[in-house]
Amino acid sequence: MEPGKGRSGKRYPSPERVLEISAMPDAVLRNLRITQSYHELAAAYGAVSGEMVSWPAFAVWASRQAGQTIRGEDLFAAIRLRFCRRGSLFRHPVEWVWRRLIRAGLLNPLTRLGRIVHKVQGPLDVVERTSAAVAEGNLKVFREIGAVFAEFIRECGEDEAFDEEKLKRVCGKLRAGDPPDGQGYLQNAIRRYYLAMFEADASARLRLMFHANAEIGFHEQLRLQDEIVAALDAPVTEVRETGQQILSVLAPGSRNWRGWARGSCARVLGVVAGGGVRFGRKEIRGLITECLMTMRLPDGAVLLLGRDVPGEYPDTLRELDDPELVAVLEKIGSVAQGREKSAADDWSDFRSRMRYIVHLFRVHAADVSFLKVPFGAREAEMIRAGVVPEGEI
Length: 393
Fold this sequence. Notes:
393 residues
């Protein structure tokens, strides 16, 4: 299925292409295609809305960051900071070997190397579980919201005037109600994006965009809750697994015991150790949020999700009085007026995470740098050809 083109001539993925990309089995390559597709959707909409920054524009950079976790590069960065000081003779060889292993399928269960890593317990288990959870979340959002946005661009991207009947056909395909099962917030957001295309007043248009972005963010993050918790809990081993590990140290010969005896002892030891595991779960989540949960912006700046979002709101968004928007903000524990703490102390906590995201949307609502291409022309062609580019992506 060929990609579509709006009245601006910008190419973008059709809903059918979104589903084709979603069906790709290779999580690394699929993530790269998702990231590129988000950019194409954001650019196509930006071209007909006066370069407004829609939700897909933010999704580009979130998906690109997710790709680093999917490829295991977050772990490598942590290892490099700990063991390979700046200027170390080992830094570049270690980086080269790690990237080669990733390209060879170290974390991809579809490759021979990936199958070996998957079968053998070791220090890469945490990376593998985190990578899988993030990849599932990346796919889940694109398969739903990416397809909805592609349908909207295809049906309404050519319009020169607001067409209520056409909008009803697009939104009528979505389920009524609140997330995670309903798609009512997506319906509302699409209507606002459509209205923004024909809004002559720049301030009103920016408020419509922020409102729509917040609604999609609310829907998206509720849908992603399970995957985010799974990604952050990956370092915390299951009770039985913990018990088996302890048992193997205390009684090396236990591998020869009868299954019921070995399993019972492992469970008892796991429950005892589980108290410590549960006690440390929140601390581990907070540590991961602080040290590994980052987002690189288009200008190269790196946000730490455990710190406040830097920057100020655009003047148009300093005071919000739309009752529907205020109601959305209240649902997540945010406020319509004034600047508040936005740091996400625990990224697995929905309200904390959503408050951070809304601040990000609000601060960067008019930041057209989010419409930049995420990859160079050569890298983009390689990705479309089904090849993972070398070097940093």
